[in-house]
C-alpha cells in the first residue's frame, strides 16, 4: 500500500484526523483543494482518505469534490459520556431556567483553557450570543469560564494567566491581579458575572456544578442583553439551578464515573 | 512502518474508524480488551490507534486501559451542517412547542431507514421517551419516521417495507398495506401519530419540515404520555411549528445548501 507510507513522519491515523480537523466551526463544506491546503496532504491522499470517510459516513459529499461533516460523526460525538449522565440530569434544570428567564441558557465543561458548550437553549426573544452547542470560549472572558476557574484548583487560574489573558472587548479582564480578585469574589458569592467581557451588549451570569469535594465538574450560565441584565435576580436563580444539578449528580451512583472536563 | 500493514485487507483508516465504531450509544467507556473484541484488532494495534486518538482528543482515557469518546469528537460532530442552518432556525420553534406542551420535543433528519435525532428538549414533567440527541429510531415505528416517510419519494416507503417492518410493540405497523394507507392519511392531514408503536405508554405526534418542492428535509415531534395524549390539540400545534421552520428555512438563501438527510 504505497499510498499509506508516501509521507514519512506522519502516520495514516494523523492524516485521517487532519482531514477531520480541517473543518472549522463555521465551515459548511470544504472543497478537495481547500482540504489539501489545510492539511498539507497530496490531492490523491486527501481524495482517498475523504473517500474512506464518506464510505463510513463521517463525511458526506456536498457537490462535486466538496465535503462536509456527516451524521455518523455527529452520532458518535454525542456519545462523549459527559453528554449523558451530566446532560440528562442537567436538561430539566436548564429548561426551568429558560422558562424563568426566556434567555440563552447554557451547560459547559472545561477543556484546557476553554469552556466547551454541551448545550444551548435559546428562544425567540433571547439576545444573539456567540455561544453554540459544540463551540468553545475562553475561560477568563466569560461568565461560564470564570465560574469554572473559580471552583477549580488554584493552579488552573495561574496557568490560564500564564497562557495570556487575551482582550476581546474593552471590558475583558486582562490584568492577572484583577482576575485573581474576581475569582475570590466568585467563590464567595457562588456565581460569576461577565459584563460585555467577551462580546459587547451581553451579560453572562454563571454558577458551577460541583462535585462532592467542591470542584467544578461543569457550569451553567444565562446570557442576557446588557440593558436587561438584573444580576441580583439572575444570580440566585442560576446558582439554585446549578446546586440542583450538583445534588442530583452526586446522588446518582454513576456520578464519579461520568466526571468530565 | 510495519505495524500499519500487518493486517492485510483492512486499511489503517478503516481500523481507526472501527475503533470509533466500537463505542455504542450505551457505552460509557470500553476496556482495551473489549475494544479488541469488538474491532477484531490485535491488542498492540488497538493500543496504538487508541493512543493516537487520545493524543488528538477524540478518545479520553478513563482509568487503566479504558477509553471513552472525547470532547474533540463531540465538537467536530456538532459541525455536521444539518445542525447549523436547520438547527439554528428550528430551535426557537422547538422551544415554543415545549412551552405550549411541556413535553418531549424533537428535531430529526432521515438517514437510511432511520430518523436521526438532532435535538431533544425535555422537562421535569415529560414522560420518559426512548429518544435522545444523537440517537436513531426506525422510520416505520415512530411518529417522526412516518412523517419523514410520508413526505419523501414513494420509493423510500417501498424500500423500507422491503427491508422488513420489525415489530417493537403489539401496536407497531408491520403490514405493508396498513403502512401505505397510514402514509396516505399522514400526507392528507399534514401530521403523523404513532400510538405506542415503538414504546408502550407514549404517543408521538410529528410533522415534516418541507423544502419548497414539498419534500421532507427534517421532521419535528412531540412525545407525550398515552393517557395525556390529545391528538386533536397536538397535531395542529406540531404542524404549525413545522410550517414555521419550513418557511424560515426556504427564506434563507442558504436553505438549499444546508439540505440534509
TrEMBL record, chains A, B:
The keyword Ligase does not apply. PANTHER family: HELIX-TURN-HELIX TRANSCRIPTIONAL REGULATOR, ICLR FAMILY, HTH-TYPE TRANSCRIPTIONAL REPRESSOR ALLR. Gene3D superfamilies: 3.30.450.40, Winged helix-like DNA-binding domain superfamily/Winged helix DNA-binding domain. This is IclR family transcriptional regulator. One of its GO terms (biological process) is negative regulation of DNA-templated transcription. Residues 10-71 form the HTH iclR-type domain. It comes from Halopolyspora algeriensis. The keyword Transcription applies.
Amino acid at each position: 500500500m504505497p499510498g499509506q507510507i508516501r509521507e514519512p513522519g506522519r502516520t495514516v491515523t494523523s492524516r485521517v484526523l487532519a482531514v477531520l480537523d480541517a473543518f472549522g466551526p463555521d465551515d459548511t463544506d470544504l472543497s478537495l483543494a481547500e482540504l489539501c491546503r489545510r492539511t498539507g496532504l497530496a490531492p490523491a491522499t486527501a481524495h482517498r482518505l475523504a473517500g474512506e470517510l464518506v464510505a463510513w459516513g463521517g463525511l458526506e459529499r456536498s457537490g462535486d469534490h466538496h465535503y462536509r461533516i456527516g451524521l455518523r460523526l455527529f452520532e458518535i460525538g454525542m456519545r462523549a459520556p459527559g453528554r449523558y449522565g451530566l446532560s440528562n440530569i442537567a436538561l430539566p434544570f436548564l429548561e426551568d431556567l429558560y422558562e424563568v428567564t426566556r434567555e440563552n441558557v447554557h451547560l459547559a465543561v472545561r477543556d484546557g483553557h476553554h469552556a466547551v458548550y454541551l448545550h444551548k437553549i435559546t428562544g425567540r426573544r433571547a439576545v444573539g450570543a456567540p455561544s453554540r452547542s459544540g463551540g468553545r470560549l475562553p475561560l477568563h472572558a466569560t461568565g461560564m469560564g470564570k465560574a469554572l476557574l473559580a471552583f477549580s484548583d488554584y493552579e488552573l487560574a495561574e496557568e490560564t494567566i500564564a497562557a495570556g489573558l487575551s482582550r476581546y472587548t474593552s471590558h475583558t479582564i486582562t490584568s492577572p491581579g484583577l482576575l485573581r480578585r474576581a475569582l475570590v469574589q466568585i467563590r464567595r458569592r457562588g456565581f460569576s458575572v461577565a459584563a460585555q467581557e467577551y462580546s459587547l451588549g451581553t451579560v453572562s451570569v454563571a454558577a458551577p456544578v460541583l462535585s462532592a469535594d467542591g470542584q467544578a465538574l461543569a457550569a451553567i450560565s444565562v446570557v442576557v442583553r446588557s440593558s436587561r441584565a438584573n444580576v441580583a435576580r439572575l444570580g440566585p436563580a442560576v446558582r439554585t439551578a446549578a446546586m440542583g444539578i450538583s445534588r442530583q449528580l452526586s446522588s446518582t451512583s454513576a456520578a464519579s464515573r461520568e466526571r468530565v472536563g
